[in-house]
Write a sequence for this structure.
């Protein structure tokens, strides 16, 4: 069953899906044929399940895209766990693939879909969320000592401007392989133009002592901001460009009425430690892979091949 444009938009709003699951965003990032959905039905439509479709050498599979953090099920209202698990099982069976599936779901699903996730042998990965309902002075006070001193000493010396070419260089400069971003230089420029035109996000470059040293891209979703991507140079001294960029972003988010920032996690221990030192709370989200075709059986090859 497929819905009309107006019905689909209404369901998105009723399920309160994140901004990166809006139809315009998915169409831009994944392409119109790169994503689809299944409906959770039980005495009416109770939810929607998003998935990202890809194909290589004639094999269909379901995977995740770096710019779409959470997919999977979203429900029209808070249900008890039994109903959520039943709805999810029913909807999951509608996904048209028999090769390979990898999924990351919203943190809320850890509790209300626990039984299904246990059956799929899901693991819990971590994102980091900073509460911005506190006063700016409180947020500064909760910083680790070296962070606080650096912010107090250097933050006002950082100035910001817009330049997508510079932003791309800074953001990809911290990656082992620029392809990990999921965007070429041209695609990055087009992506930033899209989110800024749609007024759902922005990019920023920060300059210190005449040199561009940090950049990030942030999505805004009602009262939540998503720290989608970032990069910075390593410079001598204790001004810490990455920290200054985050702090200036925090200040900007406060002026926009944002209540929390989801830094979208990291499996790299040093980055995870950085978010903790900011005072961000570690929040789990579910991740699982399902291999149904022997060609996908070697995990190292899968990750390299994907």
């Amino acid at each position: 069953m497929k819905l009309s444009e107006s019905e689909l938009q209404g369901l998105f709003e009723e399920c309160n899906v994140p901004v990166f699951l809006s139809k315009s965003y998915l169409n831009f990032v994944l392409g119109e044929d790169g994503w689809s959905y299944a409906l959770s039905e039980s005495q009416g439509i109770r939810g929607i399940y998003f998935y990202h479709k890809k194909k290589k050498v004639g094999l269909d599979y379901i995977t995740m895209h770096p710019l779409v953090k959470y997919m999977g099920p979203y429900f029209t209202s808070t249900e008890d766990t039994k109903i959520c698990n039943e709805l999810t099982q029913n909807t999951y069976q509608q996904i048209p693939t028999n090769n390979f599936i990898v999924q990351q779901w919203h943190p809320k699903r850890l509790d209300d879909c626990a039984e299904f996730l246990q059956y799929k042998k899901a693991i819990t990965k971590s994102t980091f969320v900073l509460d911005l309902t506190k006063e700016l002075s409180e947020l500064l006070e909760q910083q680790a000592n070296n962070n606080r001193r650096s912010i107090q000493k250097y933050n006002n010396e950082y100035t910001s401007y817009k330049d997508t070419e510079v932003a791309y260089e800074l953001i990809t400069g911290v990656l082992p392989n620029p392809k990990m971003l999921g965007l070429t230089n041209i695609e990055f420029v087009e992506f930033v133009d899209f989110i800024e035109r749609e007024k759902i996000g922005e990019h920023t470059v920060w300059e210190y002592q005449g040199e561009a040293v940090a950049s990030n891209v942030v999505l805004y979703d009602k009262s939540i901001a998503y720290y989608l991507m970032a990069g910075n140079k390593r410079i001598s001294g204790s001004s810490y460009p990455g920290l200054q960029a985050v702090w200036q972003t925090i200040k900007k988010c406060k002026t926009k009425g944002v209540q929390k920032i989801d830094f979208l996690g990291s499996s790299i221990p040093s980055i995870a430690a950085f978010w903790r030192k900011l005072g961000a709370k570690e929040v789990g989200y579910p991740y699982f892979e399902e291999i149904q075709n022997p060609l996908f059986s070697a995990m190292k090859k899968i990750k390299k091949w994907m």
In short: The CA atoms of residues 129 and 243 lie 16 Å apart. The chain has two domains: 5-125+285-305, 134-258.
